[in-house]
Amino acid sequence: MKQKYPGHSFAAMLFGMALALGVAVTAQAADNKDLVLKGDAKCTSCHDQDEKSVMAIGKTRHGATGDSRTPTCTNCHGASDTHANHKGGNRPLPDRTFDKKSATPTKSRNEACLSCHKGSARMQWAGSRHEGQGLACTTCHTVHNQHDKVREKATQTETCFSCHKEQRAQSNRSSHHPIPEGKIVCSSCHNPHGSSGPKLLLEDTVNETCFTCHTEKRGPFLWEHAPVSDSCTNCHTPHGSSNAALLKNRPPYLCSSCHIRFHQAEGIREGRDLGAALPGGTGRATVPTVGKACVNCHARIHGSNHPSGAAFAR
Amino acid sequence: MKHTKHTIEKRFSRTVLAASIAAIGFSVPLAAQAEEDDLLSLTRPDSEIEVGVGHVSDGSFKFGDYGRGLEKSGTHLIGNVRMNTRGDNNASYLELIGRNLGLSGSRDFGIKAGEQGNYGLSFEYDELSKLHSDSFQSPYNGLGSSYLSKPVPWTISGAVTANTNISTATMTDLAANMKRFDVETQRKAMALGLTKQLDGGWDVAMKYKREKKDGTQLTGAMIQTRNFNENRGSSLAPEPIDYTTDLFDVLARYADEKLQMQFGYHASLFDSASQPLVWDNLYYNALSVVQGGNALTGRHGSAPDNQFHRVKASGGYTLSKDTRLTGNLSLGRATQNEAFLPYSTLNTMPATTSLNGRIDTTHADIKLNSELTHELNLTAGYKYDDRDNRTPVNTYTSYIADNTDLTAFNSATVPPAGGVLTPGVNVRNNTPLSKTQQQLYADIDYHLSEATKLMLGYDYDKITHTYEPTAGDTEHTLKAEVKHSFSDTASGGLAYAHSDRNASAYDGMAPAASTFSATYLASLCQNGNSFSYNGVVTACTGGTGNIAATTATSPYLDTPALRKFFLTDRKRDKLRAYANFAPSEKLDLQIGGSYYKEKYPEAEIGYGLTKATGWSANFDANWAATEAVNGIFFATFEDSQTDQRSSDTKTDRLGRQLNTQAFFDQWGGVITRADRSLTLGLGFKVKQDDSLDWGGNLTHAATVGSTGFSSLGTSVAATLKPMPDTVSRLSRLELFGKYKMQKDVTLNVKYAYEQYNSVDWAWDGQTIAVAPTNFINTAQTSPDYRVHVIGASLTYSFK
């Protein structure tokens, strides 16, 4: 939409005549040709100035005119004739808008994107968790921007954490995946557009997702530790923990929730097990309590391939 | 449409320029050129290169961990690049991005090029460091290598016999030989990608990634100090690792208006070039019986090479405007056949020389989504996951740790005094675990009104597995959520889910009966009793000299009334509430909270995890004071807690076996572990004018972990001392400023201060004099640092 330039400037008055000529020349150029996309003159005859919201489409994949699949303005925003042809004030909005307070139904907004992006990673969007929560594609994506921050490692979490606040807090715990450092992002493990796995995980199961990076833990091992084979999340919490190694609970207590036997690791580990390191304590600490606790000995807790490794100690 | 002051002025300047040029007679051609230039500046991608220097005040592994690359004090290079070019009249593109190029262990680099809609090529490189400890110490020589040798001399003081358990207290040379060693790993990954658009709606994508991970990680290194029982000594040792993982992915995709399909092949090839870690026996007793006169060493098996191959087909079909069907089918196979090590470093090989391990995986799912009416949406589906472990079952001899005298160990017929050794004790069958999971679910979304949406759902989950205490379980989950928009500026919601998992009959001895010999299990219960071993009535053989058998009338290992939390009955409730307000155009507020409770009814009358509860609350405020100034504040508090019933003593086997109240009243107790965390964040940004941006962030995260005890038995309460809390506190201040010196040159200054302190009883205060007598102290301390980082750089922007 063209702006009426403020007429109070001395400079504008001084160059008034020349200004009028200049505007006429540039406006004529804009009115007669597409500036970025095929057929965009309908829109850019007015929207030729706002770098942030409109013209920057040219900096993105959606502005690649050489790609026959590239949409026009009206492909996404609708024909919007009432908007384009309106004279005077209170101009109606385009047929389809995508801003935060858009009155366009979410389904209609998403159809604009899904008409092209229905396959591949978006195949399971229909009925997915995020779709069910009423999210629009543009809730997370900024289309008219060279840097869609949800698609960039350094900034993706800003978008995800705006809703997933517990995960934001957990990522600041003493043990975490390198999420705040920008080395791993949410989409390293999750497909926000829907997936076959639990919790929108990229892979079909929790363990398959973890094995993508932790391949040494895949096995098959000669001696399998049952909770490991069942699910990594039996012991680990992936977004951050105050326990080492993203553990849900501290060893030895994590271990003793499943193991109470005649072995020396049995029992109620308490202050005396810290020996003289406990203020007021005496004597020596016990092996299953300090250091890595049970893992001081059962080092191959994810599984052992040693023929004598049934106790995961070798 | 909003126009900023910036764009108005820019337009004005342009127009003045154009008008001036027109006025002096150069007229239309030059004006058009100026317009063209302006157009390009609006539509041509921006690129920038940043170069500068930074300085870190103090070195700290914890500060530099997780790929930050700032673990060393001193000056470093700041190097970032981001280049984007797109053809003005065609679909060619080139994208290049490099981050932290001056920081080892942190840098990454990527380049993408191609012709959009035709083909694309990509290359990525990434470094990631994991810094485990910079305060670790060990007496071993050769730290970082695969052979950790004993210092010379290594003297054991005091009188010893052949059956003396050597204590760290008698290791005369221990303290003098403690050496610091940095324990860290580095990942370096490189990936190549190719995409090609084909005719008829098809395209193909291929990706190959190689990741190398090397360095050291801490591992427990245990050794038998005497020939039987739990007479073992341990240490933490840096284990060298040298892993290479190759990942291949090939996809063929098809998409049209209604049908989308995808066929893929995935391969993961893991190769470990690490040599098994070998360590000298620091607990060596010169009078010990040593087979063949060999000095004993301990040895770990390293992670075995493995492979995984999978084919996958996915599809989605839009049945009608409002109905869509999707489905997936994947078949995978994981294999592993690394040659076994000998049973011990004294070179006794198992009859089977490698595992020939194989797990077949199957996944299938189908999902239907339909908008039944304008108000009602239905999603229903079925999932099937199968892990079929087809690894052969064989019998192996199990020596818990490398042992000085295997012959004596194997041939013992009478338990040594105080020992549990019985013929057959060390014979084990492997138990390849298989699991099948099936899920049915249905969710409906119903719009009660334009402003109110109700979501209801039901999940059915059925699991069967092998070699576990249960044959499987079923779980029913009911879910409900309501969302309501109170106005254009206020909305909220409430969600609740209840799950009820019911496991089949729990038999804690079932896994043991599959892996241990009848002979061994018979030794765990007292003479005169009998038990059923895989359907065969077997007589108990345990004698009074055998602690494990004392008074038990049937064999068991884990306490019979123990219920493992991931296998037993469970009732779970989850509640979540949230609300968003926008009191003004400038202020957005979000509040939310969640609560969960898991109860394990069978453990409540037995042992194991009985309850897990937690709640969280969060508050967020986003404030856009002006178009140029905005700020955020957030706070999250989380509290999570677990209760587990446990017990002390290993002498009252019958009391534990029968799960009597009298036993619990004497030896039982409930352990409560709780973590409470508070995370605060405050940030602001100011865009002062076209030339200056500045701002800052303040983050604080504090966690306290506590351990409490209740319902203590009389004998436990008499001596129990409370555990101290574990604490970690992180505070981080970041300030930045960006000053545009010229149209295309920006000066960046950054300052960060981070302080972290932690208290952890697992490490703190564990000196040689305090640490266990059968565990080599590592002298590690929990991290504590204060680090300042400053940086100055110039960014050159171009198109």
Biggest pleated sheet of chain B: 26 strands, antiparallel, barrel
Quantity of strands of chain B, as a count: 36
The biggest sheet of chain A amounts to:
none
N- and C-termini, Cα separation of chain B? 26 Å
Which spans of chain B of ≥5 residues are poorly predicted at pLDDT below 50? 1-28, 412-422
What is the strand content of chain B? over 45%
Mean model confidence by pLDDT of chain A: 87
The radius of gyration of chain A is: 30 Å
CA-CA gap between termini of chain A: 73 Å
Q: Report the mean per-residue pLDDT of chain B as an integer.
A: 90
What is the subunit organization of this protein?
heterodimer
Structural overview:
The complex is a heterodimer of chains A (314) and B (799). Chain A is mostly helical and 314 residues long. Chain A has helices at 10-14, 16-32, 41-44, 73-77, 81-85, 106-114, 129-132, 137-140, 156-160, 165-170, 206-211, 226-230, 253-256. In chain A, 25% of the residues lie in helices and 0% in strands. The longest helix of chain A is centred in the N-terminal third of the chain and has 17 residues, at 16-32. Chain A is elongated and about 90 Å long. With 799 residues, chain B is mainly beta. Chain B has a domain at 1-43. Chain B is 10% helix and 53% strand. Chain B contains eleven helices and 36 strands. In chain B, the strands form five sheets. Chain B has a 26-stranded antiparallel beta barrel. Chain B has a three-stranded mixed beta sheet with strand order 7-13-14, with no helix packed on it. In chain B, strand 15 (306-320) and strand 16 form a beta hairpin. In chain B, helix 1 packs antiparallel against helix 2 (27-43). Chain B is globular. Chains A and B meet through helix 2, helix 10 and helix 12 of A and helix 1, helix 2, strand 3, strand 10 and strand 11 of B.
